[in-house]
Write a structure and sequence with these properties.
The chain has 376 residues and is an alpha/beta fold. It folds into two domains: 249 residues, Aldolase class I (TIM Barrel, Alpha-Beta Barrel), CATH 3.20.20.70; 70 residues, Arc Repressor Mutant, subunit A (Orthogonal Bundle), CATH 1.10.10.920. It is built from 15 helices and 17 strands. Helix 6 links the parallel strand 7 and strand 8. Helix 11 packs antiparallel against helix 12. It is globular and about 55 Å long. The structure holds iron/sulfur cluster (SF4). Iron/sulfur cluster binds next to loops.
Amino acid sequence: MENLAVYIHWPYCARICPYCDFNVYKSRGGDADLISAILDDLTGWRDITGPRHVTSIHFGGGTPSLLSGENTAQMIENIRQLWTLDKTCEIALEANPADADKAGWQAYRTAGINRLSLGVQSFHDPALKALGRDHDGAQAEKALRLAKGIFPSVSMDLIFGWHGQDEALLHADLDKSLALAPHHISAYQLTIEPGTAFDRAEQRGETKAVHDDMSAALYEAVQSRLTQAGYEAYEISNYAEPNHHSRHNKAYWLGEDYIGVGPGAHGRITEDKERFATVAAMRPSDYAAHVKAHGIGAEMEPLSPQNWGDEYVIMGLRIQEGISLSRYEHITGGRLNSEEISALKKSGHLAKDGDTIKATPKGRLVLNRVTEKLLT
Ligand code: SF4
């Protein structure tokens, strides 16, 4: 039976952060229609995928920590009845530190959640304010301690590269993170995405992110501090203690199959050797109407072998495993440019070991340029 990862998108947030370009809507309340559309969508997907072995379930958003323990239990149980749940299935939920609540989180644990991913972002109060977050550093710390007492695996997100951050402020955030010792840290560089409030502010001349040279220095500082502390840099932005890699995210990076349910969720499904990209309707009401009319909330678009291969390279070079040249050939029927591979190896951006190529630490710093060279 083939593996399957399941992503559930809960699109509501109590407030919208000015750097966020996810499919989100401002609301704290529940949405019974959306819950029932998600449950029906899962059933619709079972008809398409047939029996599968579910290796991970990920509640993302949005802010899925606005969901009740009862609702998460209902969705997990639905998945358990539709497919076979792996004995070690990772069941993760993204949570906002402002929603930390002992009884609520214990209810998540009882529902089956075994990994909590906390959107800490920083412990520095002025930075949290500038990032539009509704928690402060003390709340983030308290939430992390609480999570570690309830869940077997705890991850935290950190954002670096906000305007005004220097190396000393970054080290202060890293000191605090390491002292709290989460099992996994995702450290993302702040990027200004089109259409966000930060993008509009930058267009008015207000600076929101550090300049490029500084962000490279901050990235290197993150890499060296976290790896020296014993975290494995297993992906370009992700660091883990042994056995705490994000199994769900690895399904994306390794090019495995995953379904996405909930408004705007993306998926990738392979059927009869053909790969499909799926994307669900964006607005909650459109999504629910799509599920009602078509059985699932998404449209399925076939990916050409070349697009499938490009995606395999773009995602696979992010992780320490790298990519298999023969798998690329198997997907596309063509070969990656061997002259470009040799040149990137010579310049220290790529390492090659038999059939595998991977990005070196130097290559990770300019990964977009490396993949562009390989794919053009
Ligand atoms: S809480 Fe997360 S998903 Fe919601 S607006 Fe902020 S960054 Fe976006």
